[in-house]
Amino acid sequence: MAGLTRRSAAGGLGVLAAAIPAVAAAGAPQPIALSDFETVIEGLKAPEGVAADRAGVVYVSSQESACVIIAPDGTKRRIGPPGASNGVARGIRGANGCCFDRGERHLYVAQTPAGNVLRMRRLGRGRFGPPEPYGPVLGAVMADADIAGIRAQIAAGDRDLGYADGLAFDIAGNLWVTLPFANRIVAITPDRRVVSIVSDPQGRLMDMPTNLAFGGPDLRDLYIVSRLGGNVIRARSPIAGLPLAGQQSARSRGPLGTSS
Fold it and tell me: What average pLDDT does range 6-24 have in this prediction?
């Protein structure tokens, strides 16, 4: 990883350490200091979604490309033309980020305008039960708010905004949620408590976080997309992320599914 640089919240520039001490693999979520994050890539145009694999490759969607692929050494390449899709789910207002739990028994969806998360039980054959709230409303929301109204709230100094966006589970069953207009990441515990993970009210390093993903060999590298900042930041998580479907068998294979 020689040559890969980082920028911390303090503004320092240095070489990314090749080895990072191991931390606890499971347990209750704990706050992460903003200074522990580093910038992985800058200069993206309105980045949105992010995913990371065990080989350390990061995939970011943005308006300028279907996908930006960032290699572990920091090099990047863009593939595909820009594009967008819209969908409407019955009983859900403004569906955004989504993910399954460990047993894939429920689908979880961020209901952005309502500032909460919903879940639907899988019934088989592609069918789902009715959506139900999962955890509390995550902050202040305005009925039928538009971007102009939300920006007015922010200009008035209100950063306790609950418009949920990206979702990801960790292996302990905590659901991590990005709150882009609050510049905050929270986690909903299995008993439905809300724990604040990291907050950057001034947008020094994390400005409008829209999505997050766990990556690295131990799935304890936390990546967060910062839409207005045009960057992706990374820190070590005290808890490993829940392996995605394609990562379940990755332990016995090399990068991109090749035999190791």
Answer: 32
Q: What is the CA radius of gyration of the chain?
A: 18
The CATH number of residue 170's host domain is 2.120.10.30
In this predicted structure, what is the pLDDT of residue 27? 65
Section 84-93 average pLDDT: 47
Give the domain extent around 122: 25-81+91-243
Q: What is the pTM of this model?
A: 0.71
Cα–Cα dist 56/114, whole Å:
34
Give how many domains the chain has, as a whole number.
1
CA of 199: how far to CAs of 55, 179, 207, 214, in Å?
Answer: 28, 10, 10, 18
Split at pLDDT 50, 70, 90, the class of 242 is very high
Whether 44 and 64 have beta carbons less than 8 Å apart is answered as yes
E strands, the chain, are 5-7, 13-15, 38-41, 50-52, 58-62, 65-70, 76-79, 95-100, 106-111, 116-124, 127-128, 132-133, 167-169, 175-179, 184-188, 194-199, 209-215, 221-226, 231-236
Instruction: Look up residue 106 and give its two tokens.
Output: 């429920």
CB 168 within 8 Å of CB 224? no
